[in-house]
From TrEMBL:
Keywords: Signal. It holds the Pfam family GH131_N. Coiled coil: none annotated. This is Glycoside hydrolase 131 catalytic N-terminal domain-containing protein. Residues 29-280 form the Glycoside hydrolase 131 catalytic N-terminal domain. InterPro entries: GH131_N (IPR041524). It comes from the Eukaryota. Residues 1-15 form the signal peptide.
Length: 286
């Protein structure tokens, strides 16, 4: 009897990973950017402020483009914090991804609907969660510098935290396959090689009171682990989060307006489990 029980529990432990280990969010959600499957079924819901209850319908995207044309919903396993009612979302860029007159960039960035420059996203202690996955049929050109997830200052003069990919302009390309998390002065806080097939889960705990950043990471379905201790980083200046793709050009110092971009362009980054949680009392969903 004893050995039978042992055998049963051992096989249960071994079987667990195959069913996928989702995790519940355990802290209060400030902004929920997880994409409901009902939106994937009718992507035109993203296109107007009357129906887009998740993100800003109007920003930040190519002139004349609609979110329903920019976003795709790949049939991939769900990321760690997405439920049965959520889907992965693929942010695409192409030759038309020119915002206003920024001819140097190709960009498409999601902003949480209720995130305002002096709002609750910019006070207290908040943790930004996102998972990333690569689409092998839309590879990025890692000769270029990409900004994928960031918090831009209200005066647009800098980004307090930056999650980047590719070759950072003016730097060696030896780490081009790494995701790099940088502070406002481009000091690297953490780096992790991009995985070609699995979800990679990141969380950035931003302590706006103490100006400290703590980074958490896991691969696939694994629980997040703290991978960088709290580090001093200036977070003042308000602003907004942005999640998507911003591809910088090569061959210019005026990156917003000039430089080289290959054409035709067809690239993407897949996201899942996007949300901002309240980490007062040190609560972080792992
Ligand atoms: C899709 O959503 C739009 C915007 O809410 C709505 O007008 C339209 O009727 C919906 N289409 C379907 C097929 O549900
Ligand atoms: C966007 O549409 C406007 C009005 O139709 C047009 O004047 C403009 O050239 C278009 N911009 C782009 C980048 O296609
Ligand atoms: C999504 O992928 C799963 C697993 O590969 C497959 O069983 C399912 O039919 C796919 N669904 C769609 C809508 O393609
Ligand atoms: C990648 O970018 C570099 C620099 O802009 C360019 O020379 C090269 O042709 C691009 N590669 C592809 C496959 O487009
Ligand atoms: C955090 O700091 C502690 C104490 O100095 C150290 O033992 C630990 O390795 C650090 N953790 C990380 C992820 O750097």
């Amino acid at each position: 009897m004893q050995s039978l029980l042992f055998a049963l529990s051992a096989s249960a432990v071994l079987a667990a990973p195959t069913i996928g280990k989702r995790a519940d969010i355990k802290c209060p959600i400030v902004f929920d950017g997880r994409v409901p499957t009902s939106f994937a079924a009718n992507a035109s819901k993203f296109d107007t402020s009357a129906t887009n209850t998740i993100f800003n319908a109007d920003f930040v995207k190519g002139n004349n483009l609609t979110w329903s044309g920019i976003l795709e919903f790949p049939n991939v396993t769900k990321s760690r914090f997405d439920t049965a009612d959520h889907t992965a979302v693929e942010v695409t860029i192409d030759d038309r991804s020119i915002f206003q007159k920024q001819n140097g960039f190709r960009r498409a960035g999601l902003q949480f609907l209720n995130d305002t420059p002096d709002g609750p996203g910019q006070t207290g202690v908040k943790t930004l969660h996102f998972s990333v996955k690569q689409n092998p049929s839309r590879p990025l050109n890692l000769t270029h510098e990409y900004l994928n997830v960031w918090h831009e200052r209200a005066d647009f003069a800098g980004n307090q935290i930056q999650f980047q990919y590719g070759t950072l302009i003016g730097k060696s390309d030896s780490d081009k396959n790494d995701f790099k998390i940088l502070d406002q002065s481009n000091k690297q806080l953490y780096a992790k090689a991009a995985d070609p097939t699995q979800w990679q889960n990141f969380a950035l705990k931003l302590d706006y009171n103490e100006n400290m950043v703590t980074i958490y990471y896991s691969l696939g379905d694994a629980p997040l682990k703290q991978v960088a201790n709290a580090t001093s980083a200036p977070l003042a200046g308000g602003g907004q989060y942005q999640i998507g793709m911003l591809k910088k050009p090569t061959g210019t110092s005026d990156v917003a307006n000039a430089g080289f971009q290959e054409s035709p362009l067809d690239e993407s980054q897949i996201y899942g489990g996007i949300f901002l949680e309240d980490s007062a009392n040190n609560c972080v969903s792992l």
